[in-house]
């Protein structure tokens, strides 16, 4: 589990939000909550991706905070090469190039061999072009997946879950709100906020192709 200076966590117990914010803040609040509610189950999520977070709550608060992952820089230093699995650096160190295996059909290799700069340069250009052209679609897909991931754990047994899930992937935000109406307030509000991450200036969700 990696965390950065932008990482946010959110914690729930019995359908109620008990903590949200930076990892150290959430870990502190969860530790205090568990110490006074020993029988209550607590679930912690990455607030953006909805991936589950495991916090080692054994011992004192200082021990809990000590066991948290160290904050990582989001990008490698520009002048630092990323080592390959063999321990050697690959490519131009200042670009942080990593060598990995790519499997293509013969006709793909033939085409790449004709491109200026060779296969590596051509592949990097293609990937950069795909990143730019698919940015919005990828953002929507990731937002939908995060919302579903959270909904499945926190509302999987709730009334309207199946319909809400279909509405989410049909990009019908209004129906999603309707079917989530009976869910616990904090669960409903966070699920809707995750779905809203795919909207632009209040517009309706646009489905990923």
From TrEMBL:
InterPro entries in the record: DUF2239
Domain of life, source organism: Bacteria
Protein name listed in UniProt: DUF2239 family protein
């Amino acid at each position: 589990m990696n965390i950065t200076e932008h990482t946010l966590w959110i914690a729930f117990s019995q359908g109620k939000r008990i903590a949200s914010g930076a990892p150290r803040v959430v870990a502190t609040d969860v530790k205090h909550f568990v110490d006074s509610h020993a029988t209550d189950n607590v679930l912690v999520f990455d607030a953006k991706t909805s991936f589950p977070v495991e916090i080692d709550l054994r011992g004192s608060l200082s021990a809990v905070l000590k066991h948290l992952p160290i904050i990582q820089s989001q990008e490698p230093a520009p002048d630092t090469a990323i080592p390959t699995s063999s321990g050697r650096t690959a490519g131009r160190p200042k670009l942080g190039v990593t060598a990995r295996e790519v499997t293509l059909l013969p006709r793909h290799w033939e085409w790449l061999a004709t491109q200026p700069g060779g296969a590596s340069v051509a592949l990097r250009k293609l990937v950069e072009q795909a990143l730019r052209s698919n940015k919005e679609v990828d953002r929507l897909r990731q937002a939908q997946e995060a919302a579903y991931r959270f909904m499945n754990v926190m509302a999987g047994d709730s009334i309207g879950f199946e319909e809400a899930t279909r509405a989410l992937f049909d990009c019908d935000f209004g129906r999603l709100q309707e079917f989530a109406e009976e869910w616990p307030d904090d669960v409903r509000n966070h699920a809707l906020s995750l779905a809203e991450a795919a909207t632009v200036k209040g517009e309706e969700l646009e489905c990923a192709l």
